[in-house]
Amino acid sequence: MAVRVELLTVGDELLRGDTANGNATWLGWRLTEAGAEVTRSTVVPDDLDVIAGALGEALRRADAVIMTGGLGPTSDDMTREALARAAGVTLHRDPGVERLLRDRAAERHVPLRPDALRMADVPEGAALLRNPAGSAPGLRLSLPGGVVYALPGVPSEMRAIAEESVLPELAGAVVSAGVLRTATIWESVVADRLAPVEAMEGVKLAYYASPGEVRVRIEARGADRLAAAQTAARELLGSALYGVGEVTLDRVVHGLLAEREATVAVAESLTGGLLGARLTAMPGSSATFAGGVIAYATPLKHALLGVPEELLAAHGAVHPDVAVAMAWGARERLGASYGLAVTGVAGPEPQDGHPVGTVHVAVADSGGAVATRSPALPVPADGERARAIVREMTVVHALDLLRRVMLGLEGSDPWPGWAEDREEPG
User: Pfam families, from UniProt (predicted)?
Assistant: First the structure.
């Protein structure tokens, strides 16, 4: 059974938002990799009573507690005192640490401030943990509920002590992990689909949603279990799965274009250049991205892309046939293998009778084939947030449509009804 570990981070600056809690993020990642189970992460102020109380509560729940911060020389560094109070012991000055502090000051030719010697104060019964990257040592103290590790808040020092002295003691069964990436499928639908994988023994799934995409992290006790879970998940996700690990949707699209020695040109309206920006983020993208036209104003759709004036007069700019004409225009005018176009209403107000979230995407290829998609995108109550989400999701739908066209998947939805679900993404 994995060791249960709680993280207790100390510092007013963390609660105020002046400093990001990167120590907790790093410890959570490394402890999980080492096979420990991180059950809770708590941030407390530089207050002796609060720190000691939180430590006592953590010890009632976990096998081990890792504290970070509060081991420095100033008056607001209270972790040593809190640890002593929780243990019911006093502090004593360790002569070895005091000598180390004096030697370092002498080497740097700086006077040793009296308060710096506070870093040599150690709770009775605590073991010192060598600090290969700084002055303040870490502390290890066994208490009636579990073991406590106190580490400096300076990230380089915390990581050095953790790697050398803490992680080896808390390591359990090795955890293998992998990430699967999906596009245009809601988080709840992905979770329902992967329920059989979640039920597998020794397997844990975590879902991370962003506009238009869901990443699924699969953790398993051992590489064999992970391989079996990933295989099952791939089969259940089907064509909604576009990549694994750190690969992004734009890189997948570029890879497919490169395999076909093909290029793509984009025509954008509501996204205002976001689609082109995504397709030029990858180094070397010039080999497969021909260029783009931002025809934001309706007349420019005719003037720059050749969308028929009668089509625009009859339906306005927000219509699937307009998206198709824009895709043709981009492909022909920019000499690309594929034309990829988007038009719609990002908000915050409706346009020409169309509600916010109405979007049309089209792909035209050199063989005369056309594919379209008109997803029903979610509209949060916050108009500015809605506008950003609609635009970002439109880019994902456009890239995914092009991916499906190149793979021959368009027209085969992963499972019935997914596109009509208008729930707001997480």
Answer: CinA (PF02464), CinA_KH (PF18146), MoCF_biosynth (PF00994)
pTM: predicted TM-score of the whole model, two decimal places: 0.71
The DSSP annotation for 209-278 comes to EETTEEEEEEEEESHHHHHHHHHHHHHHHGGGEEEETT--HHHHHHHHHHHTT--EEEEESTTTTHHHHH
**Residues of the chain whose pLDDT is less than 70?**
1, 173-175, 383, 411-426
Terminal-to-terminal C-alpha distance of the chain = 32
Instruction: Render pLDDT for 226-277 as a digit per residue (tens, 0 to 9).
Output: 999 999 999 999 999 999 998 999 999 999 999 999 999 999 999 999 999 9
Q: Cα–Cα distance between 287 and 293 in angstroms, integer?
A: 18
Give the number of C-alpha atoms closer than 13 A to the C-alpha of residue 296, restricted to the C-beta side.
7
The 8-class DSSP code of residue 63 comes to S
How far apart CA 377 and CA 393 sit, in angstroms, is 8
CA 336 to chain centre: 34
Q: What is the largest CA-CA distance in the chain?
A: 89
